[in-house]
């Protein structure tokens, strides 16, 4: 993937690409936030931008709560949005220019919290959507944070490690005034990892001193927490077990398919296997594989850890990512990108339970199709909240300058995820809604209460 614009040493200026439809829709996305929910139920439009899709879910819950219009607008509108230029000078003198985003959505319940994503499709609308989801996610698990999200529109495969470090440091230098242990705390997300967090700690220290609580998901050596790396997967397993129980589905022997074999996907798969489930299909950007006897997850991790793809595993059946999503399994875990379950393929899903490891993997139109088919969807803001929960523990440990044991982290994580599950399923029963609307109801009530008490 080429950078957005390049300045050639010979003076030739490359034509800038046309704005993508999503960029053109960014302003439209903000207008959605500025409008209160419609009074009547409206069928989901097939093509909503990511931010419109989150607000569509918000609106459903706002209607259940009878939230006044002015409160809806206040809660949907981002607190602050930042866009910075990130130039990278190549050895031959060329300058590649990337764009860095940070959207801070809401801080009524505490400092804003959310990941940093390195992906060519990162843009303002996606950052708004994911920042908003973080506001609702931190409230669902009741950790004292608000929501934020950001990233850089680059493909890490195009950069060497020193270049990735330079880009990360430039981004940090340009946003350091806006982040901090009590303001906004980034973390890893798609294509970022503990190493990237360590570079941010170091760059931030040049301006504000050594304050490791400025980011979470750090390596253990610079203030990370035991259990953070696997936390999202552990949380996915905890919630999948509770949801399976509620569905009368025995986790032991249940067949599972996982899309994405990075942090969230690989750990979710391993914890589910350890809980007795049979992981029969996994996929990544290179494709997918299937083995009805249960895949060798350790071998797959070795292959992916060495830079390969799950499709490099020999002796198993190769399938496409579309076939993986439609696989004959009991539980489907999308744990890669957003929007992978859409109106074009939701009808093909054969799983009884979809547990969202990724953020926003199901479009509103797909949600509706799955509901009509009787497929239970456990929403991202509940299912993948294990990561931000252990990020909270990491932040607490940094502020206390005291390290917890791995056992304590796992035990507290299970407790918080279980409480969140019970709060959401009780709200679903009370209001007669899907788990997604119920999770938004729980979250919005908590955020609105804090905003009311503090005064907007
Ligand atoms: P990661 O970079 O570690 O892994 C991403 C995986 O998705 C990789 O296996 C990659 O090959 C695969 N992938 C990428 N493009 C794909 C495509 N087009 N088709 C199929 N697979 C594809 O990222 P991660 O941290 O595991 O994050 C995955 C998702 O989970 C993201 O939506 C992220 O926002 C969400 N999430 C992550 C965390 C966390 O703690 N890391 C927490 C909550 C939610």
Question: Quick summary of this structure?
Answer:
This protein is of the alpha/beta class and 456 residues long. The chain contains 16 helices and 13 strands. Strand 12, helix 12 and strand 13 (376-378) form a beta-alpha-beta unit.
Describe this structure in words.
With 456 residues, this protein is an alpha/beta fold. It is built from 16 helices and 13 strands. Mean pLDDT is 92; it is low at 1-21 and 23-29. The longest helix is centred in the C-terminal third of the chain and has 26 residues, at 406-431. A hairpin with a 2-residue loop joins β8 (278-284) and β9 (287-290). α3 runs parallel beside α5, α3 packs across α16 (435-454) and α14 packs across α15. The radius of gyration is 21 Å and the shape is globular. The structure holds nicotinamide-adenine-dinucleotide.
Amino-to-carboxy terminus distance: 42 Å
Discrete helix count: 16
- Spell the H/E element sequence: EHHHHEEEHEHEHHEHEEHEHEEHEHHHH
CATH-scheme architecture of the domain at 231-383: 3-Layer(aba) Sandwich
Helix fraction, binned, reads 40-55%
Side-by-side strand order of the widest sheet:
10-9-8-7-11-12-13
CATH superfamily of the domain at 231-383: NAD(P)-binding Rossmann-like Domain
CATH topology of the domain at 231-383: Rossmann fold
Average pLDDT reading: 92
Model regions low in confidence, pLDDT < 50 over at least 5 residues: 1-21, 23-29
Radius of gyration: 21 Å
What about the largest sheet?
7 strands, mixed
Beta-strand percent range: 15-25%
Q: Based on Cα principal axes, name the global outline.
A: globular
- CATH C-level class of the domain at 231-383 is Alpha Beta
Bound molecules: nicotinamide-adenine-dinucleotide
- What is the structural class? alpha/beta
Query: Could you tell me the number of beta strands?
Result: 13
């Amino acid at each position: 993937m080429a950078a957005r614009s390049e300045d050639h040493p010979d003076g030739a200026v490359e034509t800038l690409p046309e704005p993508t439809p999503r960029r053109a829709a960014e302003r439209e996305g903000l207008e959605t936030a500025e409008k209160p929910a419609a009074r009547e139920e409206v069928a989901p439009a097939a093509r909503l931008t990511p931010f419109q899709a989150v607000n569509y879910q918000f609106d459903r819950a706002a209607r259940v709560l009878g939230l006044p219009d002015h409160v809806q607008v206040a809660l949907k509108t981002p607190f602050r949005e930042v866009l910075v230029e990130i130039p990278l000078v190549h050895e031959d003198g060329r300058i590649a220019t990337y764009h860095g985003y940070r959207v801070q959505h809401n801080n009524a319940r505490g400092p804003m919290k959310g990941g940093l994503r390195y992906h060519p499709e990162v843009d303002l609308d996606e950052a708004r959507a994911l920042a908003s989801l973080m506001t609702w996610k931190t409230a669902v698990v009741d950790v004292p944070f608000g929501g934020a999200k950001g990233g850089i529109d680059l493909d890490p495969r195009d950069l060497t490690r020193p270049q990735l470090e330079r880009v990360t440091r430039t981004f940090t230098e340009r946003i350091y005034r806006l982040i901090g242990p009590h303001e906004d705390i980034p973390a890893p997300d798609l294509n970022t990892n503990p190493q990237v967090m360590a570079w941010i700690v170091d760059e931030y220290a040049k301006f504000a001193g050594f304050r490791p609580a400025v980011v979470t998901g750090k390596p253990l050596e610079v203030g990370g927490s035991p259990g953070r790396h696997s936390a999202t997967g552990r949380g996915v397993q905890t919630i999948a077990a509770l949801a399976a129980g509620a569905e009368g589905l025995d986790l032991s022997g249940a067949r599972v398919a996982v899309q994405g074999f990075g942090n969230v996907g690989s750990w979710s798969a391993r914890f589910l296997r350890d809980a007795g489930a049979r992981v029969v299909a996994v996929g990544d950007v290179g494709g997918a594989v299937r083995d009805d006897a249960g895949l060798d997850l350790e071998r797959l991790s070795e292959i992916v850890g060495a830079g390969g793809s799950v499709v490099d595993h020999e002796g198993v059946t190769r399938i496409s990512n579309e076939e993986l999503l439609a696989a004959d399994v009991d539980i489907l875990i999308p744990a890669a990108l957003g929007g992978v379950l859409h109106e074009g393929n939701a009808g093909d899903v054969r799983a009884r339970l979809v547990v969202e490891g990724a953020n926003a993997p199901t479009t509103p139109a797909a949600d509706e199709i799955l509901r009509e088919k009787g497929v239970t969807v456990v929403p991202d803001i509940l299912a993948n909240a294990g990561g931000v929960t252990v990020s909270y523990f990491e932040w607490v440990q940094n502020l206390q300058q005291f390290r917890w044991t791995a056992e304590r982290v796992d035990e507290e994580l299970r407790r918080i995820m279980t409480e969140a599950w019970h709060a959401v399923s009780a709200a679903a029963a009370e209001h007669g809604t899907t788990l997604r609307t119920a999770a938004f109801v729980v979250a919005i009530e908590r955020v609105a209460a804090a905003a009311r008490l503090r005064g907007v």
